[in-house]
Design goal:
It contains eleven helices and 15 strands. It is α+β, with helices and mostly antiparallel strands. The chain has two domains: 147 residues, Aminopeptidase (3-Layer(aba) Sandwich); 157 residues, Gcn5-related N-acetyltransferase (GNAT) (Aminopeptidase, 3-Layer(aba) Sandwich), CATH 3.40.630.30.
Length: 346
């Protein structure tokens, strides 16, 4: 069959076949959804390069990638930016590897420095691996009572404390986006990190419609924490969540996540994905209270014009000065320039 397989880049006309193939694949992730083509192109200004393998008129493999570039870091190809996952989905390992080879050849023509495949489900030989990130997947199939019992005692006490403090959680749609982004952008500034563009989230509401929600924690009429919640098939994930620092003593994040978990169980989700974290980071320790057995994720790289992996971790001492400066910027300044910076970073 391999001799009859053609590898090429997809066009918009391939979207129905792509969506059908991804929906049926056992290793599918939300990062493989076709809609990210438009979401990332419209909000990041990047160039999608979606590769397909086809046998006759049937797809036998897909690999979503995005071509990115910046003045500081040059050109590079990622599968997939902003998201936790990427890499090929294919009928077999041979097709998956050839899809990667095809994407790498395009990256070479585009004079990219490297290709990055995030949290691949089919690990390809001959690539450089990074394994410092972990995923936290909570099994929801046993029901609310058993899920509650599985959570660390400290986390449960913090949920109770938050509820006793008068915090409540509401769920809604795009009408809550302004409140979410106000909290999220403030927290990102306080962390010294450029914020993602608001358009990234509004585009998701446009393209995902019934598969996206916002959870908002309120103290009376005052919003204090919020999260974006995405659904795909029987899996739900929170890609972005934040709270105001001045209310952290009330544990709004714990209540937010518990109510999101309950919400997902009632929806019928089988898995809740807390998102990735680096080993022993603050978010890693928070999530480990909810999921005691995090799963190591493999990110794979093909280095083209560089000799070592890109290191853009905020814990890198080289970025300490920039982070400290960013923390003290007025919020409107950080919100104006943050998206210009972060959408150009690997």
């Amino acid at each position: 069959m391999a001799e009859n397989i053609r590898y090429r880049f997809a066009s918009q006309g391939d979207s129905p076949a792509w969506e059908y193939y991804v929906d049926c694949h056992p290793r599918r992730t939300i990062a493989h959804r076709w809609e990210w083509w438009s979401i990332l192109a419209n909000s990041f200004g990047v160039k999608p390069r979606y590769a397909v393998a086809e046998c006759g008129n049937k797809l036998v493999g897909v690999l979503p990638t995005v071509l990115m570039s910046s003045i500081l870091f040059g050109r590079y190809m990622i599968s997939m930016p902003w998201l936790d996952y990427g890499g090929p989905l294919a009928d077999n390992d041979d097709i998956a590897c050839k899809l990667i080879e095809f994407a790498v050849s395009q990256a070479e023509r585009e004079k990219c420095k490297f290709v990055e495949l995030r949290a691949v489900r089919q690990v390809a030989p001959g690539l450089v691996n990074k394994d410092q990130k972990y995923a936290f997947w909570l099994d929801l199939k046993s029901g609310e009572e058993n899920v509650w019992k599985s959570i660390d005692g400290k986390a449960k006490n913090q949920v109770r404390k938050a509820a006793k403090s008068g915090l409540v959680v509401q769920f809604g749609g795009i009408e809550l986006l302004d409140e979410f982004y106000r909290i999220f952008s403030c927290n990102m500034r306080d962390l010294g990190t450029p914020v993602w563009p608001k358009k990234l989230y509004s585009e998701q509401f446009h393209y995902f419609k019934n598969d996206i929600e916002i959870g908002l924690v309120k103290l009376g009429d005052l919003p204090v924490a919020a999260a974006i919640l995405l659904h795909y098939k029987d899996c739900s994930i929170v890609p972005s969540a934040s709270s105001y620092r001045k209310y952290r003593n009330l544990n709004p994040n714990n209540l937010l996540y518990w109510e999101i978990i309950r919400h997902c169980i009632m929806r019928g989700s089988a898995t809740f994905d807390f998102g990735r974290s680096s080993l022993n980071a603050g978010t890693y320790n928070f999530k480990k209270q909810w999921v005691n057995n995090p799963i190591q994720q493999i990110w794979q790289y093909k280095l083209l014009t560089i000799d070592s992996l890109p290191e853009l971790d905020p814990s890198n001492p080289k970025f300490r000065l920039a982070i400290n400066i960013w923390k003290h910027l007025p919020l409107f300044v950080a919100n104006k320039f943050g998206p210009m910076i972060v959408t150009k970073l690997p």
